[in-house]
Amino acid sequence: MSTAATSEHDPELSAQTLRTLERASGNISTSSLAAMEQRLPWFQRLPASQRAGVLLVTQTGVSNFVSWLRDPAQGVKLTAQAFNTAPRDLANWVSLRRTVELVRIAIDVFEQRLPEFAADTQERDRLVKAVLRYGREIAFAAATSYATAAEARGAWDARLEALVVDGVVRGDAEEALLSRASALGWDPGVEATVLVGNPASEEPPKVVFDVRSRAARVGRPVLLGVQGSRLVVVLGGPLDEATDRQVLEKMAGAFGTGPVVAGPTMTSLAEAHRSASDALNGLRAVVAWPAAPRPVRSGDLLPERALAGDPEAERQLIERIVLPLVESGGSLRETVESFLEVGGVLGACAKALFVHPNTVRYRLRRVTELTGRNPTDPRDAHVLRIALAVGRLARSRGLW
User: Which of 339, 282, 346 lies closest to 316, judged by CA?
Assistant: First the structure.
């Protein structure tokens, strides 16, 4: 308290009045609690242990009020002590708004009861003014207490979130991962997509704000972690053809310069490590495709990932492209190989295969239907060429 605040207490209250207040502190605390129960329906529903915690704070506050009257300079210290005596999880039981309601009722009881302890009118006025100043100190102490609890809880949540994201990247045991994620309010059954790229800032709070604000705008839950020079984001919710590009582009805006790679959307957080693995492998390989969109799906980087030695990409190329062509029978694989070898010239391909150009057109359409890749598109042609090369290498090793 300042010197000006101290001077407001002069002349001091009589020793007899202070002793009377000390003896009555327990009764005032009980009256405050009774008023809370009468005026606040939600307070009546609290378990006995939680009401006892509120009573403890109230008793300490009343007791410290007398000490504060003797030495106003100790006001901040004493009011803070009132909340330090409370159970550590009091902030979880009672919100800050409700705490303000409790403080208001306690101050009302103070104002009603204190005049009866004054020796004269002058002391009565002095007590009324003092309780108003003390109530202000209590309010500030409550706000400080809740702010400190929120900071501690935020720091703990940030550490726990970093552990969850790290567990997704490393593929930790499912039970431990889901338990930690549930503590953060994550629905374990919601779909999960992992995005990786460069953080937009070297300041973690700014990175967290940017990611969370964008996730809130698209209405998706999110987990994130900065791991060295990369930002890993786990985005919740389904991504279909209608929403995929739009949502991912908005989330990519939270990343810094450079490529952003999104892994496949998995059915739950327990499977998200597969999305993270594909996304990270794609991030390492995306440099081989300078024209890659931002963001780019890891499944669109299969040729680059295969060239970088990613066995998962090789497996997917064989399963999605090579095997459908082989199992279709006929000469689809031969046709697409010939078409690519002659540089995509339809007439030259037909001549090399001794067939009519319309036959080549039909076969290429069948290739597109089976693989989802159009041989006449430059990018798809590149994917088909790499897939066929990977398939030949795997076949030579007896892998299929």
Answer: 282
- Dihedral-angle region of residue 234 (phi above 0 means left; psi in -120 to 50 means alpha; beta otherwise): beta
What's the token pair of residue 317? 């190329």
**Residue 171: what are its φ and ψ, rounded to 5°?**
75, 45
Under a CB-based contact definition with an 8 Å cutoff, are residues 216 and 208 in contact?
A: no
pLDDT in tens, 287-297: 999 999 999 99
SS3 362: helix
Q: State how far the Cα of 85 lies from the Cα of 157, in Å rounded to an integer.
A: 24
* Cis peptide bond upstream of 11, omega within 30: yes
Q: Which CATH number fits domain 3-152: 3.10.450, 1.10.357, 1.10.1060, 1.10.490?
A: 1.10.490
Tokens (6 digits) for 328: 């279709």
In the numeric block, the tokens 């795997």 are attached to 394
DSSP strands (E only) in 238-335: 261-262, 296-297
Q: Which tens digits make up the pLDDT trace of 174-210? A: 788 888 888 888 988 899 999 999 999 888 888 989 9
Pairwise CA distance, residues 211 & 51, whole Å: 40
Reported CATH class of domain 311-396: mainly alpha
> What does the block give as tokens for 46?
């609290």
Can you read off the two tokens belonging to residue 294? 């931002």
Closest C-alpha to 65, from 113, 99, 97, 33: 113
C-beta of residue 301 within 8 angstroms of C-beta of residue 277: no
Task: Quote the tokens at residue 392.
Answer: 């030949």
Q: Do the domains 177-302 and 311-396 sit in the same CATH topology, yes or no? A: no
